[in-house]
Write a structure and sequence with these properties.
Elements: E1 10-15, E2 21-36, E3 41-46, E4 51-57, E5 63-66, E6 72-77, E7 82-87, E8 90-94, E9 99-103, E10 107-114, E11 118-124, E12 127-132, E13 137-142, H1 143-148, E14 154-157, E15 166-169, E16 172-177, E17 189-193, E18 199-205, E19 212-215, E20 218-222, E21 226-231, E22 238-243, E23 256-258, E24 265-270, E25 273-277, E26 286-290, E27 295-300, E28 307-312, E29 316-321, E30 326-332, E31 350-353, E32 356-361, E33 366-371, E34 377-382, E35 387-399
Antiparallel strand pairs: 1-2, 2-3, 2-35, 3-4, 5-6, 6-7, 7-10, 8-9, 11-12, 12-13, 13-14, 15-16, 16-17, 17-18, 19-20, 20-21, 21-22, 23-24, 24-25, 25-26, 27-28, 28-29, 29-30, 31-32, 32-33, 33-34
Length: 400
C-alpha cells in the first residue's frame, strides 16, 4: 500500500552568505513500530511506502511506548524482565522559523533496563522511568544516554514491591505508595522524591491508583475518588485532588491519555463511557462521552487538538470532538472484537501519524490506515503474526 501525503516535497533554495544557493528539501516522513502480541519481535514500517523497513528480535513480547521527541521507542517486556530500546532513525529539530528533519535507518540500541516484571513506563522531558513491580524499584535513564549509551540507570526504591509507577517531574520523582497491608492491591497514593533520590516526606493520598498521563505542564493520576493533578510549583510540584463530578455513571478511571495543543485528559470510566477532563475548570471538569459499545482503545490526536479517537468492540473507529463532547464521525475498520475474555487478549490499538491514523488488527494481520482529514480508510498494510501494540513517529521538515 502506498500512502499519499497532503504536503508535497518541495526543493527550496536561499542565497547563503557565500553567494551560492543553499537548497533544502521539504519532506514529511512517518514510521510506525509494531510489536507482535505473542512473538518477541518489533517491526518498523514506512507509512509512505506501506512497507516493512526493518524488524528487531527482542527477548519477549512487548508493549511499546515512544519518547516525547520520537527518537526512541521503549519496548516493555513484562515476562522477559527487561525494557529494550529502539532508535527510530527520525529526529526533528526546531529552528524557530523552520524545522529540520534527519532520517536514518532505525536501530536496536544497546541500552537495556533490566529487572523483575516491568509494567508501567513513563517518559517526561527526556527522562524515562520504568517501574519493576516485583522489586518495587524505579529505574531511570535519560533519552540522550539511551541513544549514546553513556549513562548507567539510576534506581529509586519504593517501600515494597507492588504494581506501581514512577513519574519524572523536573528534578523530582513521583512514586506510588503500596497498600500498607496488601502489596498485591493497587497503590494508595503518591510519594515525592527529591533531586537526591530520597523521599521528601510529601504524600498525596490516591486510593486504587492506576492510570497516568500528561498534558502540557500538567500530570494527572487516576484514583478511585477522582484525579491527582500535578502542576509545577515554586520549589516542588503542587499536587491537588480533583474529585469526580456528581452525575457520572458508576465507575472510575483506570487509564488516562493527555491532550496535545489543548490541556485536557481523556479517561475510561464505565464500559461504554469515556470522560473528558478539564482540570482548569472549577465546574464541569468531567464530561462523559457515551459510546455505542464497549471501548477497546482510545487516544488523543496530536495533529488535530480538537479531536480524540476511540475504537469500540463492534469494529468501529470514532472521532470525538472534545469541544462539543460528542462523537462526530465513525468508520468501520475490523470485524468485532469482544471485550469478554482475558484483559491481555489481542485487540486493536490506535496510533496517530500526522495526517494518518493507524489501527492494528491482530486477528486479521493488518494495519488499517485512515485519513485524518476525510476520516475514510485509505488502505491496509499486511503484517505477519498478530500486530498489536504500536507507536508512530515522524513529522515534516527540511533536509539539507
Amino acid at each position: 500500500m502506498t500512502v499519499r501525503f497532503h504536503r508535497p516535497m518541495i526543493l527550496a533554495c536561499a542565497i547563503a552568505l557565500s553567494g551560492y544557493p543553499a537548497c533544502a528539501e521539504q519532506i514529511e516522513a512517518w514510521r510506525v513500530f509494531v510489536a507482535d502480541h505473542s512473538e518477541p519481535v518489533v517491526r518498523a514500517f514506512d507509512l509512505r511506502e506501506g512497507k516493512e523497513v526493518d524488524r528487531f528480535a527482542l527477548a519477549g513480547a512487548a508493549r511499546l511506548h515512544r519518547s516525547q521527541s520520537g527518537r526512541v521507542v521503549y519496548a516493555v517486556q513484562r515476562d522477559a524482565n527487561r525494557v529494550q530500546m529502539i532508535g527510530t532513525g527520525i529526529a526533528l529539530g526546531d529552528h524557530g522559523d523552520h524545522g529540520d528533519i534527519t532520517i536514518e535507518a532505525p536501530a536496536l540500541l544497546d541500552a537495556i533496563l533490566a529487572g523483575r516484571k516491568p509494567v508501567h513506563l513513563v517518559e517526561r522531558d527526556g527522562t524515562v522511568a520504568a517501574f519493576f513491580d516485583d522489586e518495587g524499584i524505579a529505574r531511570l535513564v535519560s533519552e540522550h544516554a539511551a541513544l549514546e549509551g553513556t549513562e548507567e540507570p539510576r534506581d529509586i526504591a519504593s517501600s515494597a514491591p507492588h504494581h506501581g509507577v514512577a513519574i519524572p517531574f523536573g528534578v523530582h520523582l513521583l512514586v506510588t505508595r503500596p497498600h500498607p497491608s496488601d502489596p498485591g492491591a493497587l497503590p494508595v497514593g503518591l510519594d515525592l522524591f527529591g533531586p537526591d533520590g530520597a523521599p521528601t516526606g510529601d504524600h498525596a493520598p490516591c486510593p486504587d491508583l492506576h492510570g497516568e498521563a500528561q498534558s502540557g505542564n500538567l500530570v494527572a493520576v487516576a484514583c478511585a475518588t477522582g484525579l491527582l493533578v500535578v502542576a509545577p510549583g515554586p520549589e516542588r510540584p503542587d499536587i491537588r485532588h480533583l474529585p469526580y463530578a456528581t452525575g457520572l455513571p458508576e465507575g472510575k478511571t483506570t487509564k488516562l491519555v493527555g491532550g496535545k495543543g489543548l490541556r485536557y485528559f481523556l479517561g475510561n470510566f464505565a464500559a461504554r463511557t469515556l470522560v473528558l477532563i478539564d482540570p482548569t475548570q472549577a465546574e464541569e471538569s468531567f464530561r462523559p462521552v457515551e459510546l455505542p459499545t464497549r471501548v477497546v482503545d482510545f487516544a488523543t490526536h496530536p495533529a488535530k487538538p480538537r479531536f480524540a479517537l476511540a475504537f469500540t468492540e463492534d469494529g468501529y473507529l470514532h472521532r470525538i470532538d472534545v469541544i462539543a463532547g460528542q462523537i462526530d464521525r465513525s468508520v468501520r475498520l475490523t470485524a468485532p472484537y469482544s471485550m469478554d475474555g482475558h484483559w491481555s487478549d489481542p485487540r486493536p490499538r490506535i496510533a496517530v501519524a500526522g495526517p494518518l491514523i493507524v489501527v492494528s488488527d491482530p486477528l486479521a494481520g493488518h494495519l488499517h490506515v485512515v485519513d485524518t482529514e476525510t476520516f475514510e480508510p485509505t488502505g491496509a498494510i499486511a503484517v505477519e503474526g498478530e500486530p498489536f501494540s504500536l507507536v508512530a513517529v515522524g513529522g515534516a521538515g527540511e533536509t539539507h
